[in-house]
Design brief:
Strand order of the largest sheet: 3-2-1-4-5-6-7
Shape: globular
Oligomer: single chain
Number of strands: 7
Number of helices: 8
Distance between the termini: 58 Å
Strand content: 5-15%
Largest sheet: 7 strands, parallel
Radius of gyration: 19 Å
Helix content: 40-55%
Order of helices and strands: EHEHEHEHEHEHHHE
Length: 268
Amino acid sequence: MRLEGHVAIVTGSTKGIGRAIAERFAAEGAKVLVTGRSEAIGEQVAEGIRKSGGEAEFLRTDVSRERDVVAAVEAACDHWGSLSILVNNAAPMEAVGPNAIDDVLVDVDPKAWDHIISVALRGAFLCSKYAFARMQQAGRGSIISISSATASMAQPGLSTYITAKAGLEGMTRALAVEGSPYGIRANCIIVGAVPTGSGWAPILADPDAVAALRNLQLTRLGVPADIANAALFLASDEAAFVTGASLAAEGGALIKLPLPDARTHRIN
């Protein structure tokens, strides 16, 4: 019960990584507000947590809407009396995949840019802004933002998404400095290839694409539980000495150059 006594909001927690984090936090004793845009799925997630012995409620929340964010923070505090953990996980599903609205920078539609930024970066800003004030009252807090390896290793066609994730890491450092007088820590998790959702189906159906992903990383492909484990550590008192950090949970992708073996391709 590493999170006993804590109240957490996990954005975008109706599926994938966010759901795994919400379920793991609840299993470790946190009271969890599940949020997302799908009311039916969100209620199922919260009910599943309660059936497993945890404590959770669902509130339909679009993090790009300030009033929704304010309502979520107030709901958690009204229901459980305080707020001490925030996970900024929500990201627009339209950003990646076969039907993606993102593109190379010169071809991105400004409306698509605004939409992706409004959810992936501005949404995290809004959640952090309003959660921060409540954490000040509680005298403690942990803000965890889900970033991506693409923030450090750019990939063509993801210019807006990359910008949003890089912005999250900068905001995290600012929050760590500004939160330190109040016992509020802020950290990022850098995520590698963690196949979740229907957008991954075409990729996983392509053996060459799967081989490329596996070759990029030093371990297996990730699963949502891998990220939930990292989030649990950062949210717990075990990470009391960790703030302003970007914790890599990306299978080693950031340390491996995608180049041939130097022993067989030497340059004289």
